[in-house]
Design brief:
Pfam families: DUF3046. InterPro entries: DUF3046. The chain is built from five helices and two strands, in the order ααββααα. It is mainly alpha-helical. It has one domain (3-59). It is globular, with a radius of gyration of 11 Å. The two termini are 15 Å apart.
Length: 77
């Protein structure tokens, strides 16, 4: 997942204003309590940040990838 795809999903699932607020303020406890922005700036894969955010915000798998998106492949180990 590219970062631009991440932001497109943020906008689609949470709405632009609320999504940007979440990215700035929501602490991701599974990622050392970094915010979304801090995690992305630290180099955490956008797909991982997205999954952690969705888990924390209780977004079901059926809605997590938006209406026209498929889940991107997992990052290489």
């Amino acid at each position: 997942m590219k970062e631009r795809e991440f932001w497109a999903l943020v906008d689609e699932i949470f709405g632009r204003a609320y999504g940007r607020s979440l990215a700035q303020d929501q602490r991701l406890y599974r990622l050392d309590s970094m915010t979304v922005l801090e995690a992305l700036q630290a180099g955490v894969e956008p797909r991982i940040v997205w999954n952690v955010l969705c888990d924390q915000m209780e977004v079901p798998d059926s809605k997590r990838w938006g209406k026209d998106h498929n889940a991107p492949p997992l990052p290489a180990a």
